[in-house]
């Protein structure tokens, strides 16, 4: 049996590929568990500075949760499954490393929600996004009702959630759901280029910047500003802050050492 998730690490970039192309990478419990294990390891692996998540095959990033495995769940089991998956998506959001979704096709239901939990999204022109749960008689269960409106606004999110209709990559870019759209053949190159640009920064600053944004969004603005100031102050305890500013003043490239 093939591995449900493939890992490839090169030049500080770890790429996780969801590998069930025969069912358009639909997520089942085994796959989620495997993704969660890989992510936990990468979170503390110094060789991985940025993580890219993508789907195997030409057609799909992830076509959602496995409908076959979901159909006969009782309400409590469905709730439990949703909560477990949400915990996993929270792990992605709270991962110390930036996580980029390279969306290579359908990103539907749980697949769209997984992409939403990533920090950045790069899509190929043939990608599409949707929350089709309403067509199955359910609602999103992996926090799509929360992350989607925060990213694209209430009206656009409700339109996607209530109609269940897909939007293409260009429309996803127009409404701010993805950061950039590229030709299918260039998707992984573009995601890697973006990852490498982040990987060359001080990883302490990268981590603190991510924390300021992710945690700050859960606070009121005033408290979030104070929190940012705390983390800003913390940067001045690092060698990389001295190096970054000295390098600027000496008109040379900074040599960051991640501490
Ligand atoms: N689950 C299981 N199998 C799937 C899924 C899925 N989500 N998506 C596709 N497949 C399978 C198909 O059954 C088919 O298998 P087979 O070859 O054995 O018939 C194979 O993948 C290829 O798919 P299609 O033949 O349908 O390919 P098309 O190109 O005709 O269509 C689509 C592609 C449009 C993506 C179509 O497959 C589709 O609509 N898929 C379902 C999309 C969907 O509704 N996703 C949302 C699922 S619900 C969800 O994600 C909720 C998350 C929260 C859950 C909370 C926990 C309880």
From TrEMBL:
One Pfam family hit: ECH_1
InterPro entries named in the record: ClpP/crotonase-like_dom_sf, Enoyl-CoA_hyd/isom_CS, Enoyl-CoA_hydra/iso, Enoyl-CoA_hydra_C
Keywords: Lyase
Keyword Lyase: yes
Entry superkingdom: Bacteria
Family: Belongs to the enoyl-CoA hydratase/isomerase family.
Higher taxonomy: Bacteria, Pseudomonadati, Thermodesulfobacteriota, Desulfuromonadia, Desulfuromonadales
Ranges that cross the membrane: none
Record's protein name: Enoyl-CoA hydratase-related protein
């Amino acid at each position: 049996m093939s591995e449900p998730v493939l890992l490839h690490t090169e030049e500080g970039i770890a790429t996780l590929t969801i590998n069930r192309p025969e069912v358009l990478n639909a997520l089942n419990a085994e796959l989620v568990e495997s993704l969660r294990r890989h992510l936990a390891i990468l979170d503390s692996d110094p060789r991985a500075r940025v993580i890219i998540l993508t789907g195997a095959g030409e057609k799909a990033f992830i076509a959602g949760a496995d409908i076959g495995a979901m159909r006969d769940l009782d309400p409590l089991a469905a709730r439990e499954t949703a909560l477990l998956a949400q915990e996993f998506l929270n792990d992605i959001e709270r991962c110390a490393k930036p996580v980029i979704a390279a969306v290579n096709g359908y990103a539907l239901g749980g697949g769209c929600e997984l992409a939403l939990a990533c920090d950045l999204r790069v899509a190929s022109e043939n990608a599409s996004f949707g929350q089709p749960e309403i067509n199955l008689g359910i609602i999103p269960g992996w926090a799509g009702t929360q992350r989607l409106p925060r990213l694209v606004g209430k009206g656009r999110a409700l339109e996607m959630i209530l109609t269940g209709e897909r939007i293409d990559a260009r429309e996803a870019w127009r409404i701010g759901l993805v950061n950039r759209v590229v030709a299918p053949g260039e998707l992984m190159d573009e995601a890697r280029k973006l990852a490498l640009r982040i990987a060359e920064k001080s990883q302490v600053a990268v981590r603190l910047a991510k924390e300021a944004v992710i945690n700050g969004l859960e606070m009121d603005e005033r408290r979030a500003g104070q929190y940012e100031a705390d983390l800003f102050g913390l940067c001045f305890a690092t060698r990389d802050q001295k190096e970054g500013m000295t390098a600027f003043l000496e008109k040379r490239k900074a040599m960051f050492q991640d501490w």
